[in-house]
Amino acid sequence: MRRKGDLPQKICAQCGRPFAWRKKWERVWEEVRYCSDRCRTEAKRAARKS
């Protein structure tokens, strides 16, 4: 068992806040760029707007 503080972290590409590894991201951790669905949809909306 790992402590929450020992888990790997990344910085969200949209909001810039750090987020920690989650079990559901176990297989795709290298591909994860956003901390939440909200950040992912906002990034797509901003890219489409530009």
- Helical content, roughly? 25-40%
Q: Mean of residue pLDDT?
A: 93
- The structural domain count equals 1
Derived from helix and strand composition plus strand pairing, the structural class reads: alpha+beta
CA-CA gap between termini: 44 Å
Q: What is the tally of helical segments?
A: 1
The SSE order reads: EEH
Structure, described:
This is DUF2256 domain-containing protein. InterPro entries: UCP037205. Strands 1-2 form a two-stranded antiparallel ribbon. The protein has one helix at 37-49, and strands spanning 9-11, 18-20. It has one domain (4-49). The model has no long low-confidence stretch (mean pLDDT 93). It contains one helix and two strands. The protein is elongated and about 45 Å long. It has 50 residues and is α+β, with helices and mostly antiparallel strands.
List the helices and strands and how they pair.
Layout: E1 9-11, E2 18-20, H1 37-49
Antiparallel strand pairs: 1-2
Can you give keywords for this protein?
single chain, 50 residues, alpha+beta, two-stranded antiparallel sheet, DUF2256 domain-containing protein, UCP037205
Give the structure's gist in a few sentences:
The protein is an alpha+beta fold.
